[in-house]
What we know:
It contains 13 helices and 14 strands. Mean pLDDT is 91; it is low at 1-14. It has helices at 24-32, 70-82, 92-98, 116-124, 140-153, 157-178, 203-209, 228-234, 248-253, 256-259, 268-271, 280-283, 291-302; strands at 4-5, 19-21, 39-43, 56-61, 88-90, 102-106, 131-135, 186-193, 196-198, 213-214, 224-225, 238-241, 275-278, 316-318. The protein is of the alpha/beta class and 320 residues long. α5 (140-153) packs antiparallel against α6. The strands form 2 sheets. A 7-stranded mixed beta sheet has the order 1-7-6-2-3-4-5, with helices on both faces. Strands 8, 9, 10, 11, 12, 13 and 14 form a 7-stranded mixed beta sheet that branches.
Amino acid sequence: MAHSLIILRIGANDSSMRICSLLPSATEIAFALGLGDSVVAVTHECDYPPEARTKQRVVKSIIDAARNGSAEIDQTIGKLLRAKKGIYTIDLPRFREASPDLILTQELCDVCAVDYNEVVAAANSLARKPEIISLAPTLLSDVLRDIELVGEAAGKKLEAEALVSRLKNRIDRVREQASCSDYRPRVACIEWLDPIYSAGHWVPEMVEWAGGIDGLGKKGAPSEKMDWNRVMQAAPEVIVLMPCGFDIERILKEMHLLYRLPGWSDLPAVKSGNVFAVNGSAYFNRSGPRLVDGLEILAQIIHPEIFPWQASPEAAQRLN
């Protein structure tokens, strides 16, 4: 896996740096490193921490996800991608007004953020050319490396090392405790409801570290559209619903899509009451520091006999 990285040559004590984050996870990383005051522009989806919502928004989506169901969103995205059209657009007047020194973006997923080529074109339109860090993590270890890359570029190397150390300690604690059990249940992590997508990239790795076996997703690979029969054949003992960009309230509104699937009530996870909805947008879909919170939530779901339930109702809920 390769990162596209251009190091910004600005001194660590330069408080005048102007950062434009075109990715919610990058925004979270910047704030976690104490760069909140330097962030001058974000996307319409950058909502964490709450202070990010006060920043100038320079990216908007063509799709109104709040008004459309899963099937309609999927169909619209498919049409746009086949037509080689972007899902997101940059507000050039606002972008130019922000006048960033450093742009944080990604090349991992066309559905997750503005097209990288559009970012480059927008950057080239500025009077003063900014540096660009393009992130492309596929595993949780890559996310930790990205934190260090952003920290180094923005003059927060020590802060980044300290944050990564804390996150690694939490990861190691989960892995060590989960390894105490020989029982490794079959887990299905669902990243979209209609059609069904299995969660990919870092999620199968997180399931493994939390003491489960992901029978659908592929570690380090993109999420995958799949036939419902494949889910039935996997016979998951635990199902975790984490649709991309959805919180729990939105998942509950679309649960009827699963109830109508043939054989849903016959799945081991459904029979045993081990179906969970989690805030995918906050803890599983974004490649930022809160993925470690997601790992801890998964551990509580998969091995409640080891990990006492601590997740808030806004983070995770048992559904049956």
